[in-house]
Amino acid sequence: TTWVYRFGNGRSDGSKDQKALLGGKGANLSEMSGIGLPVPPGYTITTEACEYVVEHDGTWPDELDDQVRAGIRHVEEAMGRTFGDPENPLLVSVRSGAALSMPGMMDSVLNLGLNDQVVEGIARQTGNERFAYDAYRRLIDMFGDVVVGIDREKFEHAITSMKEERGVENDIDLNANDLRELVDRYKAIYRKETGRMFPDDPWQQLRFAIDAVFGSWTNERAVKYREINSITGLKGTAVNVQAMVYGNMGEDSGTGVCFTRNPATGENKLYGEFLLNAQGEDVVAGIRTPKDIKELDRLMPEIYAELQEHTTRLERHYGNMQDIEFTVQQGELFILQTRDGKRTGPAAIRIAVEMVDEGLTSESDAVRDLVEPGHVEQLLHPRFKNENGYAEKVLGTGLPASPGAAVGRVVFTADDAEEWNQRGESVILVRVETSPEDVGGMDAAEGILTSRGGMTSHAAVVARGWGTPCVAGCDDIVVNAQRKTFTNGEVTVQEGDWISINGSTGEVILGKQPLVDPELSGEFSRFMTWADDLRTLGVRANADTPEDARQALEFGAEGIGLARTEHMFFGDDRIAKMQRMILADSEEERRDALEALLPFQREDFAGLFQAMKGRPVTIRLLDPPLHEFLPHDAEEQEVLAERLEMPVRRVREKIEQHAEMNPMLGHRGCRLGVTHAEITEMQARAILEAAIDVSTDDAPVRPEIMVPLVSTKAEFDHQRSVIDEVAAAVFEERGKEVQYRVGTMIEIPRAALRAGEIAEAADFFSFGTNDLTQMTFGFSRDDAGRFLPYYVQENLLPADPFQTLDQEGVGEMVSIGTNRGRKVKPKLQVGICGEHGGDPASVKFCHDTDLDYVSCSPFRVPIARLAAAQAVT
Ligand code: PEP
Ligand code: MG
């Protein structure tokens, strides 16, 4: 088996298409080497090796050790140096790199190969003793932390004491002798903490480091990150072993990260940060505040020009905005890494549109690769109502690290963020800086505020990836995590206080600022038309009111896939009539009450038809158990009794009679229409009369009447004949007809199984996957929240099946129902109107299952449009 792929020095065993095997970083290193970019030579140990080692309790596969050594020989040849040779030493780094980027989740160790002899060799070779010992102490620090789990604070403490003893402020001010002594102190810490000596055999160091990277795949943070981001199906992490290049060899050296375009706004301009005389981790860790990349043009114009040439080349080559790490070692530029850059929603749209306009990619590739459903979701996020209205409440301004507005109560630890969020509180997580341990809390927060770190700090990168608003590096404030306060010197904010943050401007604002819904840009509409051109699946909206319908249209819905009628009965003037209807003693009384409800319903439906201008509108007949419309508290029951001129006792008895042990499995859906046909009659009449009223010759209304919760054909037949009879009567009375269709929801497993016979009578199907999930699993929709999170956490389920369709089980019901229905009626219209209609993975499933449309809440319509386009292969 080939476990090791080499790259660099004109060689490249792998390519960018091998991310699953080589990880994103490894695949791209091979690719870059292949197209002739200056990449430090190295090799990648495959994700399969990681999988093997994890599965075999840390044992390496037979050939791995030999291949690792052969890999080192490749690097030695390329560099003209020898690993472990004090005369002419080679140092290497070991880094993790999974197929998907997991920022900060995995570990790396730099400067491997140093020991007391080699460090002298490095000093001689570079003529820089200070540099050599600085590299050595960094090795012990990282190795101690990553490989053997020593608390980094211990090393931090040692260097801080050393600086105090020497009376200096910065690390840079410690000289070679200081650092030599610091190495001894670090080794002593290592010995004290582990009971062992720091290993001075370079091969042993390498082996331990590789094992640590393998092990980091299953550490808590990595597992949690994958969980939060629903990352499954990966074998493990790859391990990249690479020759060290140094950005800290003096003022002609440096290191930085850059994006080929601005990841916050999308502007087509090299964007990034760098530090002179520093190592890569200094930039990412946010320890020193880096300089803007423009400065590099001033300080090292030739290097800047070369960098620009490479970055432009990489963007063209990958057809996507790139996130690139580079190092300059004594005037020589190396590209260390490239990957598709994470970006905000607005940036994603702008980049996609501009890259198409610049001829760098096609419209369909832009739709497929440059914008994710989550980006679209961000664009639909709220903004502040008045960005100019809070000037005097601004506590400070930091970096606009991830745009959008967030309002919440301040918490100071990730654990508190998670806990408060569980209680239903909106929180803003405030930290000096964040670390990978904080991801749970960051995910739970509405927004993130840090007082330290740059645009590429951990907080900024993670927040941008999720679309969580973030203000980073706000040094106007001082955070006291112990006391749970922060202050700008004038105002002190305590835990639990409300603040607002503006991730687009970097402002931190006292109090709860009002938010508004966003407006969508012209670029966005253009992009979405490309998505529409690509997709074959229809997208409708679930909308019950004309306002929702208009919103849905604005977001590009092609019709209404579900208008739930129950909400229509809750208005002040209506609920009384509804209650009268429910509590009526005779059918006649019930009919009277329904008669009074008819004009309201007719008006409701006319509003929907008008808003939708001739597009399809599916109206569902009354679905919930009637008990839901009756008052449950004693006082309201008294009011009702008075209104109905009935003794309270009698009212209570009647309400009692309607109570059910299992209302969701009870007298609801078409079962109501079967026992009370007059309800179906009234609703059918209201729909058809409204359709006639609103229809014009140009835009005829063709209502789709939907019967809920059918389990047998007989139920559907019953309801259909009631509706058809009403239709005949209405058309006769009005002397005018409309085309109408009568279909059913498929939301009970029996209906999915018997879809063939139901299709004989039904004009269309719509899968109600909320109930179908409830009834296929036997999970109560209302109560499963108590245990489902546990199921997901413990991997008993890959995800909450009420959020993303369980394709194996519930999905099989959907395909059985579709196939059996279409076998009888090949052109049967089939849609889905459960919550899953707006979930990208479920949308893909619906496309693959050949449904005609998905229907989802208006705000998810654009997401569904994009997901439907991306489902086309
Ligand atoms: C469903 O069950 O999926 C559905 C859309 O109907 P409701 O959520 O109203 O039960
Ligand atoms: Mg339902």
From TrEMBL:
Coiled coil: none
PEP-utilising enzyme mobile domain residues: 425-506
Keyword Ribosomal protein attached: no
PEP-utilising enzyme C-terminal domain sequence ranges: 521-871
Binding positions for Mg(2+) per the UniProt entry: 747, 771
Catalytic residues in the record: 458 (tele-phosphohistidine intermediate), 833 (proton donor)
Positions contributing to substrate binding: 564, 620, 747, 768-771
EC numbers: 2.7.9.1
Keywords: ATP-binding, Kinase, Magnesium, Metal-binding, Nucleotide-binding, Pyruvate, Transferase
Tagged with keyword Nucleotide-binding: yes
GO terms, molecular function: ATP binding; kinase activity; metal ion binding; pyruvate, phosphate dikinase activity
PROSITE patterns: PEP_ENZYMES_2, PEP_ENZYMES_PHOS_SITE
Family indicated by similarity: Belongs to the PEP-utilizing enzyme family.
Function: Catalyzes the reversible phosphorylation of pyruvate and phosphate.
Protein's name according to its UniProt entry: Pyruvate, phosphate dikinase
Species of origin: Longibacter salinarum
